[in-house]
Amino acid sequence: QVQLVQSGAEVKKPGASVKVSCKASGYTFTSYGISWVRQAPGQGLEWMGWISAYNGNTNYAQKLQGRVTMTTDTSTSTAYMELRSLRSDDTAVYYCASGGFLRALDYWGQGTLVTVSS
Amino acid sequence: EIVLTQSPGTLSLSPGERATLSCRASQSVSSSYLAWYQQKPGQAPRLLIYGASSRATGIPDRFSGSGSGTDFTLTISRLEPEDFAVYYCQQYGSSHGMAFGQGTKVEIK
Q1: pLDDT digit string, tens, across residues B62-105
Q2: Which residues in chain A have their CB less than 8 angstroms from residue B93's CB?
Q3: What value does the mean pLDDT of chain A take?
Q4: Where are the beta strands (DSSP E) in chain A?
Q5: Are residues A104 and B92, on separate chains, in Cβ contact within 8 Å?
Q6: What is the mean pLDDT of chain B?
Q7: Whole-angstrom Cα distance, residue B64 to residue B69?
Q8: I need a surface site. Which of A69, A83, A110, B93 has the fewest CB within 10 A?
Q9: Is the model's pLDDT at B31 over the cut of 70?
Q10: Interchain contact B92–A (C-beta under 8 A)
Q11: Residues near A96 by beta carbon (within 8 Å), at least 6 away in sequence
Q12: What is the DSSP string of B9-34?
């Protein structure tokens, strides 16, 4: 069965960076892209961006351009999302999900809580 | 950039009743690349509907999606206790990326 397993919770200080991993299993990793979605406490879902696991092409949300980088390691079927220059309003649960671009998000990771606090 | 507006913000209904949720796009959604997700507290979202009207794997047939262009609807024919949750619509299939609506909470009356 398809599974996306994310790395554990992180606590970071303002200005720092965080890198969240998402390990996929149960399907051919390069067949679909990986999207990243975040959810601030008590808020809705915010799309952050998408990466093709096939060729590494990316598409980032405009508001995060310059602060976010998405990568994949096809040898381990793992996707990564790095967010830099963290601010308090980056505190959120970060989800990875398979799909994106021409495909809905059909499988989701369990979420990773990132807390930004001084 | 497409903006999705969901209504109502909260829907108060009883088990067994019919729920009708609306999602309106600021511009036409190409080829009905419109999905619906369900999210319960403390859980990741779950895909219910894709392509505006196709049910995802394992989704009960009491969930149905319809619409095209800028107006889309998620209907739950008879609410079960496990259906009380927050529902999000999402646009995908655009070179500009994806967008989510702000969500509709379906609560027990």
Answers
A1: 999 999 999 999 999 999 999 999 999 999 988 778 999 999 99
A2: 101-102
A3: 96
A4: 3-6, 10-12, 18-25, 34-39, 46-51, 58-60, 68-73, 78-83, 92-100, 103-108, 112-116
A5: yes
A6: 95
A7: 17
A8: A110
A9: no
A10: yes
A11: A4, A6, A20, A22, A34, A35, A36, A37, A79, A81, A108, A109
A12: SEEEE-TTS-EEEEEEESSPPGGG-E
Label the pairing between strands A112-116 and A10-12.
Answer: parallel
Structure tokens that stand for A42 in this block: 């008590």
Report whether B76 contacts B59 (CB < 8 A): no
The verdict on A8 touching B (C-beta cutoff 8 Å) is: no
Token pair for residue B2?
């497409």
Q: Which of B75, B80, B74, B89 is nearest to B36 (CA)?
A: B89
Rounded Cα distance between B87 and A65, Å, is 28
Of the pLDDT bands very low, low, confident and very high (cuts 50, 70, 90), residue B58 is very high
pLDDT tens string A11-50: 999 999 999 999 999 999 999 999 999 999 999 999 999 9
Neighboring chain B residues of A60 at a CB cutoff of 8 Å: 97
- Amino acid found at B101: G
- Whether the link from the prior residue into B45 is cis, omega within 30° of 0, is no
Q: How many CB pairs under 8 A join A and B?
A: 67
Residue B98 to residue A95, Cβ atoms within 8 A: no
**How many other C-beta atoms lie within 10 A of the C-beta of residue A25?**
11
Strand bridging mode B10-13 / B104-108: parallel
CA atoms within 13 A on the CB side of A95: 24
